[in-house]
Design a protein that fits this description.
By secondary structure, the chain is mostly helical. The chain has one domain: YgfB uncharacterised protein family PF03695 (Four Helix Bundle (Hemerythrin (Met), subunit A)). The protein is built from 10 helices and no strands. Helix 2 crosses helix 5 and helix 2 runs parallel beside helix 10. The longest helix has 17 residues. It is globular, with a radius of gyration of 16 Å. The relative contact order is 0.14.
Amino acid sequence: MNPLDGLDETDISRLEHFFDDEADDDCLDFIGAHGFLSALAVEPSPPPSAVWLPVLLGESAPPKDVPPLLERWLTCMCQQRYHDDPLVLPCALDPQDEALTNWCSGFMEVVFWHEDLWHDNAEAELVELTLPMLTFSGLIDDPELLRLRRDRRISRQMAERIPDVISEIYLFFHPVKGDAA
């Protein structure tokens, strides 16, 4: 499987071009879009594309080929999380890298958008699990998050754990059911 969740190089290039060159300035970039879709892929039940596409795209009017690519990308991501395939981010797990900030911002956009879903049950556990993404997103101006981000050792550990944290979040929302014996 392709490291970017089932897309071939042509699809990746098309989406990169759309998000980084054609979309409105207020739209997420390609890496942020991956974060957004990654969050949808771990939710208990992603909303229909008619609901999430306008949130992801904002005011950008995509060409006809982009929405089906995004829908397929999300479907592939959901399948990979279901099969416990590891998440591969389209950026380095470097807390100093702006690309990681963009990925985390996209991820947290979904968390904030569906806050009731993410925090109604076991809020403390999910807050802890989403802490790395919240810290690196830069969306919340909090002195404690800034302290975590500035501590190189802690921030490096948090960043390196993001793929595992995504798996943990998936398992939180989709617990493995044992066989009834």
